[in-house]
Automatic annotation (TrEMBL):
It comes from Ailuropoda melanoleuca. This is TM2 domain-containing protein 3. Its main location: membrane. Belongs to the TM2 family. PANTHER family: BETA-AMYLOID BINDING PROTEIN-RELATED, TM2 DOMAIN-CONTAINING PROTEIN 3. The gene is TM2D3. Residues 188-235 form the TM2 domain. Pfam families: TM2 (PF05154). Keywords: Glycoprotein, Membrane, Signal, Transmembrane, Transmembrane helix. It is a multi-pass membrane protein. It is found in: Membrane. One of its GO terms (cellular component) is membrane.
Length: 252
């Protein structure tokens, strides 16, 4: 029994020594290794590394804008009757002025037209008179009007107008061109009213006041129509249209 008790005590001491050695190993060598291995992991978690920025470039949207000339172009109409803004034609310099000529034309993009058989067409031949746009008759173009020139003057005054060919008219050259025109605008004055005032109340300057000529009107008023002589002269001048409105416009 004594030997068994001694052996049991020895085993207890051995277990205590082994437990101490295992704790010492963990606190000294093994624990530091685990700490070193855990630090890079913690750093890798805390430090995500250099950040990369990505710029998202949106795709260019397909252009769906309709050209402005399309509004003037009738859809599915005859190509030969399209306005000039809807087609592009090759200039035929060999044509004779004033004579009929043929031109090779192409329909502009976004414009649809047909031929005589109602088939879609892009290239066609157009017949027109050989002449430049500035040689067209006055009924085929529109010009800007000027209100700063004198229409009643000798000689008649002219002004530089900007003219544009009408849409349905085809011609050679630029469709917008300058042209010298006679002053031709009205301010609303009636020739019949001015003449009637000159005959009836011309001695008091009523005709001159009506035409906007205040100085001449006051002169006739205080001179009683120039003792009648000025009145007779104004009747003749207004009758033939030599005396007109002070703003330089034409009579209605």
């Amino acid at each position: 029994m004594a030997a068994a008790a001694v052996l049991l005590r020895a085993l207890r001491r051995l277990c205590r020594v082994l437990l101490f050695l295992s704790q010492f190993y963990i606190l000294s060598g093994g624990g530091s290794l685990n700490l070193e291995q855990s630090q890079p992991l913690a750093q890798s978690i805390k430090d995500p590394g250099p950040t990369r920025s990505f710029t998202v470039v949106p795709r260019a949207a397909e252009s769906t804008d309709i050209p402005p000339y399309v509004m003037k172009c009738p859809s599915n109409g005859l190509c030969s009757r399209l306005p000039a803004d809807c087609v592009e034609c090759k200039t035929n310099f060999s044509c004779v002025y004033g004579k009929p000529a043929t031109f090779d034309c192409t329909v502009k993009p976004s414009v649809t037209c047909v031929d005589q058989d109602f088939k879609s067409q892009k290239n066609f031949i157009m017949n027109m008179t050989c002449r430049f746009c500035w040689q067209l008759p006055e009924s085929d173009y529109e010009c800007s009007n000027s209100t700063s020139c004198m229409t009643v003057s000798c000689p008649r005054q002219r002004y530089t107008a900007n003219c544009t060919v009408r849409d349905h008219v085809h011609c050679l050259g630029n469709r917008t061109f300058p042209k010298m025109l006679y002053c031709n605008w009205t301010g609303g004055y009636k020739w019949s009213t001015a003449l009637a005032l000159s005959i009836t109340l011309g001695g008091f300057g009523a005709d001159r006041f009506y035409l906007g000529q205040w100085r001449e009107g006051l002169g006739k008023l205080f001179s009683f129509g120039g003792l009648g002589i000025w009145t007779l002269i104004d009747v003749l001048l207004i009758g033939v249209g030599y005396v007109g409105p002070a703003d330089g416009s034409l009579y209605i």
